């Protein structure tokens, strides 16, 4: 984690942030905290990836380790109402035109090709040279297989993911060139417990802010080009956000909690916490970046 800095700021509301945002050297990571589950590890992971600015959005009661808190701006905004997380991302977009941004929730971890040896800034520099202003990130569900030992399905040490069962489909709405909806993981296997709008696993979580750009409630942008998986002439880099969020939600919802006895199935495999595994499984690709 980074050394403490006196420039770290805390804002009592989203309006206070919008009126006087801090300097935001990029790339910037916005962490949307729905609870304290693996909150410190989420922030540490993205600091180590090379994000120069971390912004935590969540309830003011959320606790952080001292070393983590020292390197993190905070916006006090409980995410207990629909739309608040999207509002927070849009506020950061407005405050940082021209800056590369990233957003995720707590207990989510970004991986990209060669992430063990290359920084996120290096990757985004290459991506920008390919005239791309956004990057497709697949949200890959993580889960513990022993729900008796881990009732919330969250365990870094015993995390599993699905090695099969992913597919793409042409959107029924909001279609267009180089635009697909992607499905798989727990959202596919237990889709009866999720509304259709929450079953996609595609999220364009890495993007360059610009004036007027808006993230919508379905995790798409109002600029159609930002919602494309590749440029017109070849495949581009993609990344993966390895996430306990769906497993956690399925365990907390009373209906699904008692209907689901285990997340394990024949295609479950231990997560190795390494980008090469995700590349080998086809869950992200390096494009032309070698």
Mean pLDDT: 93
Helix content: 10-25%
Number of strands: 14
Shape: globular
Strand-residue fraction? 15-25%
How would you sum up the major sheet? Answer: 9 strands, mixed
Low-confidence stretches: 1-6
Number of helices: 9
How do the helices and strands follow one another from N- to C-terminus?
Answer: EHEHEHEHEEHEEEEEHEEHHEH
Radius of gyration, Cα only, in angstroms? 18 Å
3D architecture notes:
By secondary structure, the chain is α/β, with parallel strands linked by helices. It folds into 2 domains: 7-106, Rossmann fold (3-Layer(aba) Sandwich); 108-290, no CATH class. Helix content is 23%, strand content 21%. It is built from 9 helices and 14 strands. The chain has helices at residues 14-19, 39-49, 66-69, 84-95, 120-129, 185-189, 245-252, 254-259, 275-280, and strands at residues 10-11, 28-32, 53-58, 73-76, 100-105, 108-111, 134-141, 143-144, 159-162, 167-169, 181-183, 202-208, 239-243, 268-270. Mean pLDDT is 93; it is low at 1-6.
Summarize the entry for a quick read.
This protein has 290 residues and is α/β, with parallel strands linked by helices. The protein has two domains: 7-106, 3-Layer(aba) Sandwich (Rossmann fold), CATH 3.40.50; 108-290, no CATH class. The protein has helices at residues 14-19, 39-49, 66-69, 84-95, 120-129, 185-189, 245-252, 254-259, 275-280; strands at residues 10-11, 28-32, 53-58, 73-76, 100-105, 108-111, 134-141, 143-144, 159-162, 167-169, 181-183, 202-208, 239-243, 268-270.
């Amino acid at each position: 984690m980074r050394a403490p800095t006196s420039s770290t700021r805390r804002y009592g509301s989203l309006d206070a942030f919008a009126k006087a945002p801090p300097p935001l050297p990029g790339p910037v990571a916005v962490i949307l905290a729905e609870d304290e589950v693996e909150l410190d590890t989420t922030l540490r992971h993205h600091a180590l990836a090379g994000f120069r600015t971390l912004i935590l959005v969540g309830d003011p009661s959320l606790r952080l380790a001292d070393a983590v808190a020292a390197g993190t701006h905070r916006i006090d905004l409980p995410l207990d109402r629909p739309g608040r997380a999207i509002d927070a991302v849009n506020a950061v977009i407005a405050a940082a035109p021209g800056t590369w941004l990233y957003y995720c929730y707590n207990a989510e971890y970004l991986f990209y090709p060669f992430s063990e040896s290359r920084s996120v800034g290096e990757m985004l520099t290459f991506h920008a040279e390919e005239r791309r202003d956004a990057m497709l990130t697949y949200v890959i569900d993580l889960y513990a297989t022993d729900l008796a030992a881990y009732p919330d399905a969250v365990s870094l040490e015993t995390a599993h993911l699905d090695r099969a069962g992913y597919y793409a489909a042409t959107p029924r709405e909001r279609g267009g060139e180089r635009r697909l909806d992607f499905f798989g993981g727990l959202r596919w296997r237990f889709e009866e417990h999720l509304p259709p709008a929450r079953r996609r696993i595609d999220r364009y979580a890495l993007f360059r802010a610009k004036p007027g750009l808006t993230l919508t409630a379905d995790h798409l942008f109002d600029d159609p080009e930002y919602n494309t998986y590749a440029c017109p002439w070849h495949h581009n880099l993609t990344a993966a956000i390895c996430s306990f969020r769906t497993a956690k939600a399925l365990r907390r919802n009373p209906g699904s909690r008692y209907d689901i006895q285990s997340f394990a199935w024949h295609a479950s495999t231990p997560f190795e916490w390494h980008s090469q595994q995700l590349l080998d499984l086809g869950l992200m690709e390096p494009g032309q970046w070698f």
